[in-house]
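Obj: model holo form, ligand = iron/sulfur cluster.
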Amino acid sequence: MSHSPLLTRRLLLQWLTLGASVTPLLVAGMGTAMAAPAALLSVDAPEARAVKYVEDAKHAQSATPGSSCANCGLYQGPNGSTQGPCQLFPGKDVKAAGWCTSWAPQM
Ligand code: SF4
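Output (holo structure tokens):
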């Protein structure tokens, strides 16, 4: 059994259509995988200790009431996030409820 040229062209078009419809899904999936959260900063890391980082601002003796990573000018996590990047610790996430002595108000 051999395929006619028309059938072969039809199959080719079906494959191209399938590829065009699946490609955005693959790209979206890759974007989701790339957006995975970074490793959480350990409170025991030397750089965290240097600025007295804690995961819960309530346990920070020097913290101004109401201040936390979530409302710090250096926090880069989206609104409502529980953790996110901090400009002070590249490649690491901090807890939104955390705090350190470098806390600065948002501008
Ligand atoms: Fe949190 Fe701001 Fe300190 Fe970063 S600089 S750990 S966001 S308080």
